[in-house]
């Protein structure tokens, strides 16, 4: 039995202890905002927070988050706002979905809109989770800090905009 | 543009008083009938480009896939601007995958005017069967959506709708139409101060025939186009709600993990499943002709079980083939054959024979994978004589037909569920169907939906690759050091005619292509042949410039007398990059220019050599002439994107063949540019007012040569093989700055 919280909701799941957190979130809980990219912690598309720290969920066995607080992209805004939402039902999200959450977006998510960062968008859940974690620990990162902290792959090459968006948050 | 607009327009009344204004690429009668039927049924997701409803909202139906290029926003901008709509009242909807939205005829019509888009060229020439197939596609590729659908259909539909709405208002008021104006979704009669909303007029407009002649706006009249409008798709991409093909989870779905024949074209011989069927969640082993799949109630369970499954594939003649063999074959082909003509101008052989000096440069580039962030996947549910399919694709309609044919159904019995694409880059174009085919074959064996997902390793090893190419050059100089002849032989096939041509004035040119076929499957890769050919031609012209003792920028400008648009982008990029001014110690600028997909792009790369003797790309300054601009923010984003994509390929990208199979597995051995290695990028838009150029691809081609041309100045080492990482720069010395 795996027992942990996802976006504030307690989960008690009868699953193998070595199932990676990524697949627990996607296939067992049906929350698809967290993406599969490489399966070996290389690209960062699967980044989630465990107790606020960014981890690459594709190589994180679910047993290692026993009793911990997991936050996914779907819960980022709520957690930032201190709310305690129920898990969103993503099974029937239309293509041009409106933002899920009734609470305002987090500052990072808003900066991503303001700077029109995403292109295909597939890597951006992980990118936003990584940046959110970095900024929580280091609110005013240097370029070198950004380079060493944010190692996610974006095939659309949104890097210049990611940097601009981070800088806008750091200044603010 | 000579395409008749009138014959393509049609209107349909909507239940509840709205109007649809459609633009048909085929026979309007067919569309009108279909629309009428659908409208009668109260169906509002109907089949046109533009819908105006009584509440004054405008819905624009976009038939193209959104893969980050912004088409779901730029096409509505084009329609809404011509309509004089209030952008706040404009909505976007993905057009359904039905043949009324097929753009094959549109492409064919456009091709008559401007040439067939490069990404389809190889296909169009293959056979009549393929031409027929192409005409039934709903393709997004070739940097074509805004140029074809936008320019030809969206703007026309918007302008026609505006015209009709004004006619209707004038009729109601009993005034002349030319006394009325349209603005922000209202028609005004200024003399009397009366106004009516488009929504109030829509039902009347549905009764009108579209205008004979539709006059499009002059750019000075644009109210929406030319503005940096925020993209419709971005909010869903920051909160996890954006839906990609891989996110499909229809009720009762199972998951398939698949192992393909590692050597392309070989077949499965045997499978030893051991006791994996007793593992938790495992449902079935599916053996296919060239692959084996494990189907389970979770993807992880399926893929873990697959790792334990033993399989044997047949041997083939290619089992020992390596990249070295393939390039040796290319060299042999280049040595044995003079190839077939691409360009012959003047007397190149004669010029070479009488030359005072000849230089040679033999170039090559490896295969490349697309490596889109979303691994290839496809979910298929065959039930009740229908087939439902979820997959991220650049061609929804083609997928529908493909899945239906494999499922043994008629195309109309397939239902396509749209999604965003987690990257396309050519991988998700028509005919690159291996994953679709296999997913459908697997799902045929189940009465529940099955989602087939490729691991990153399989995504990399079962791609359709950018072709490896070898390209050999000679240049002849006269006694005064002026270049007299350009001699180029390269391995094919040509996927993009013209990619190997050069804009430079050289009296004698001979460009020919020889056979380059191998067992490795190939396809379009972002910018298609331009990415390889521009590296070759813009490097060798740089060699010629240095041999001539000229500054590479000035040398290009001098030979571009016939190409003022090329000169302009070079000038803008060079000026902005500080070309000719003092640079930080150890930095150099490399320059390159290329026209592709209707846009002309010059890039200047500022480079230094790092402590590891590999280049550091500090900044790329780019000037693009894409004619005019629909959404400047999208232009900038696409240019940045294309440069990073091309830079990854130039610095690191190589798919090598060992023992007949792809040697690379995942991002560690197929390395990517990331934050730390991404340069600053500065984009300058040169608005020439010429026809709209493409944006998804044209910034990719010049970057490799821009970087290697800078490296030459820094090291004296001419990089003639990509990726750059394979060149040893440890014992090099800078050349004198010219």
Low-confidence segments of chain B, given as residue ranges, are 1-7, 25-31, 37-47, 105-136
Strand content of chain A: 5-15%
Q: In the CATH scheme, what's the topology name of the largest domain in chain B?
A: Aldehyde Oxidoreductase, domain 4
Radius of gyration of chain B: 28 Å
Query: What is the count of structural domains of chain B?
Result: 3
Largest sheet of chain A, if any? 5 strands, mixed
H/I helix tally of chain A: 6
Number of domains of chain A: 2
Main sheet overview of chain B: 7 strands, mixed
CATH architecture of the largest domain in chain A: Roll
Class derived from helix and strand content of chain A:
alpha+beta
Indicate the proportion of strand residues of chain B.
15-25%
Written account of the structure:
Chain A folds into 2 domains: 2-75, Beta-grasp domain (Ubiquitin-like (UB roll), Roll), CATH 3.10.20; 107-171, [2Fe-2S]-binding domain (DNA polymerase, domain 1, Orthogonal Bundle). Helices cover 34% and strands 12% of the residues of chain A. Chain A is built from 6 helices and 5 strands, in the order E-E-H-E-E-E-H-H-H-H-H. Chain A has a 5-stranded mixed sheet with strand order 2-1-5-3-4, with helices on both faces. In chain A, helix 3 (107-114) crosses helix 6. The longest helix of chain A has 14 residues, at 124-137. Chain A is globular and about 45 Å long. The model of chain A is unreliable at 84-101 (pLDDT under 50). By secondary structure, chain B is α+β, with helices and mostly antiparallel strands. In chain B, the strands form 7 sheets. Chain B has a 7-stranded mixed sheet. Chain B has a 5-stranded mixed sheet with strand order 1-2-3-4-5, sandwiched between helices. Chain B has a 5-stranded mixed sheet with strand order 14-22-21-20-15, with helices on both faces. In chain B, strand 20 and strand 21 (483-491) form a beta hairpin. In chain B, helix 2 (71-83) runs parallel beside helix 6 (145-173), helix 6 crosses helix 7 (198-205) and helix 14 runs parallel beside helix 18 (703-715). The radius of gyration of chain B is 28 Å and the shape is globular. The two termini of chain B are 44 Å apart. In chain B, 58% of the residues are buried. At the A-B interface, helix 1, helix 2, helix 3, helix 4 and helix 5 of A face strand 5 and helix 17 of B.
């Amino acid at each position: 039995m795996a027992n942990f919280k996802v976006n504030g909701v307690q989960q008690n799941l009868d699953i193998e202890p070595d199932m990676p957190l990524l697949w627990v979130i996607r296939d067992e809980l049906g929350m698809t905002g967290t993406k599969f990219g490489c399966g070996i912690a290389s690209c960062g598309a699967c980044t989630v927070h465990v107790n606020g720290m960014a981890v690459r969920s594709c190589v994180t066995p679910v047993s290692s988050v026993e009793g911990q607080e997991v936050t996914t992209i779907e819960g980022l805004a709520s957690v930032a706002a201190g709310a305690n939402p129920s898990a969103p039902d993503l099974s029937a999200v239309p293509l041009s979905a409106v933002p899920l959450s009734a609470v305002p977006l987090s500052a990072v998510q808003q900066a991503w809109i303001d700077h029109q960062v995403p292109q295909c968008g597939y890597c951006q859940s992980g990118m936003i989770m990584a940046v959110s974690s970095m900024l929580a620990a280091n609110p005013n990162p240097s370029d070198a800090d950004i380079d060493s902290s944010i190692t996610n792959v974006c095939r659309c090459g949104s890097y210049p905009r990611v940097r601009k968006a981070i800088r806008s948050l750091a200044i603010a | 543009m000579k395409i008749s607009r009138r014959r393509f327009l049609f209107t349909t009344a909507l239940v509840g008083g709205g109007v649809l204004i459609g633009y048909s690429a085929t026979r309007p009668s067919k569309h009108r009938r279909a629309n009428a039927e659908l409208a009668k049924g109260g169906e509002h997701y109907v089949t046109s480009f533009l819908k105006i409803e009584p509440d004054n909202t405008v819905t624009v139906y976009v038939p193209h896939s959104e893969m980050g290029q912004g088409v779901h926003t730029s096409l509505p901008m084009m329609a809404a601007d011509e309509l004089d709509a209030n952008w706040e009242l404009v909505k976007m909807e993905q057009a359904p995958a039905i043949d009324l939205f097929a753009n094959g005829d549109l492409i064919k019509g456009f091709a008559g005017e401007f040439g067939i888009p490069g990404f389809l060229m190889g296909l169009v020439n293959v056979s009549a069967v393929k031409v027929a197939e192409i005409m039934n596609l709903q393709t997004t590729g070739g940097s074509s959506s805004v140029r074809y659908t936008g320019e030809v259909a969206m703007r026309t539909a918007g302008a026609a709708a505006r015209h009709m709405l004004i006619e209707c208002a004038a009729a109601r008021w009993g005034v002349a139409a030319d006394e009325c104006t349209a603005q922000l979704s209202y028609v005004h009669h200024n003399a009397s101060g009366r106004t009516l909303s488009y929504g109030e007029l829509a039902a009347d407009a549905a009764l009108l025939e579209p205008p004979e002649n539709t006059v499009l706006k002059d750019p000075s009249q644009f109210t929406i186009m030319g503005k940096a409008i925020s993209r419709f798709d971005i909010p869903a991409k920051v909160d996890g709600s954006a839906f990609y093909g891989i996110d499909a989870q229809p009720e009762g779905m199972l998951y398939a993990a698949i192992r393909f024949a590692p050597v392309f074209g070989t077949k499965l011989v045997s499978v030893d499943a051991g006791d994996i069927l007793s593992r938790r969640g495992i449902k079935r082993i599916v053996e296919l002709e060239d692959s084996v799949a494990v189907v389970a109630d979770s993807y992880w369970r399926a893929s873990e079980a697959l790792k334990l499954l033993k399989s044997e594939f047949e041997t083939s003649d290619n089992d020992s083939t390596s990249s070295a063999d393939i390039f040796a074959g290319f060299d042999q082909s280049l040595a044995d054959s003079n190839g077939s003509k691409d360009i012959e101008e003047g007397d190149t052989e004669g010029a070479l024979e009488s030359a005072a000096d000849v230089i040679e440069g033999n170039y090559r580039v490896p295969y490349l994978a697309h490596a889109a962030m979303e691994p290839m996947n496809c979910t298929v549910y065959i039930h009740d004589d229908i087939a439902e399919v979820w997959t991220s694709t650049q061609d929804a309609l083609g997928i529908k037909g493909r899945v239906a044919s494999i499922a043994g159904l008629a195309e109309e019995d397939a239902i396509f569920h749209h999604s965003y694409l987690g990257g396309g880059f050519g991988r998700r174009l028509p005919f690159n169907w291996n994953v679709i085919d296999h997913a459908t074959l697997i799902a045929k064996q189940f009465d529940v939906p099955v989602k087939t997902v490729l691991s990153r390793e399989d995504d990399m090893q079962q791609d359709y690759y950018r072709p490896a190419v070898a390209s050999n050059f000679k240049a002849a100089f006269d006694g005064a050091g002026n270049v007299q002849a350009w001699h180029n032989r390269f391995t094919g096939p040509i996927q993009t005619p013209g990619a190997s041509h050069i804009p430079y004035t050289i009296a004698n040119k001979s460009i020919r292509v020889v056979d380059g076929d191998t067992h490795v499957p190939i396809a379009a890769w972002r910018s298609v042949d331009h990415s390889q050919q521009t590296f070759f031609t813009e490097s060798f012209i740089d060699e010629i410039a240095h041999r001539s003792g000229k500054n590479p920028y000035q040398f290009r400008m001098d030979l571009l007398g016939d190409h003022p648009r090329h000169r302009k982008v070079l000038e803008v990029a060079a000026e902005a990059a500080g070309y000719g001014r003092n640079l930080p110690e150890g930095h150099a600028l490399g320059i390159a220019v290329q026209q592709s997909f209707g846009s002309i792009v010059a890039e200047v790369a500022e480079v230094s050599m790092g402590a590891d003797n590999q280049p550091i790309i500090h900044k790329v300054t780019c000037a693009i002439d894409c004619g005019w601009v629909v959404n400047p923010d999208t232009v900038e984003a696409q240019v940045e994107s294309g440069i990073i994509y091309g830079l990854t390929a130039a610095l690191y990208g190589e798919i090598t063949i060992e023992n007949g199979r792809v040697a690379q597995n995942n991002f560690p051995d197929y390395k990517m540019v990331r934050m730390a290695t991404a340069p600053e990028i500065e984009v300058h838009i040169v608005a020439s007012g010429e026809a709209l150029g493409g944006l998804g691809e044209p910034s990719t081609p010049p970057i490799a040569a821009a970087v290697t041309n800078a490296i030459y100045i820094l090291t004296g080492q001419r990089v003639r093989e990509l990726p750059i990482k394979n060149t040893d720069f440890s014992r090099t010395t800078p050349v004198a700055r010219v």
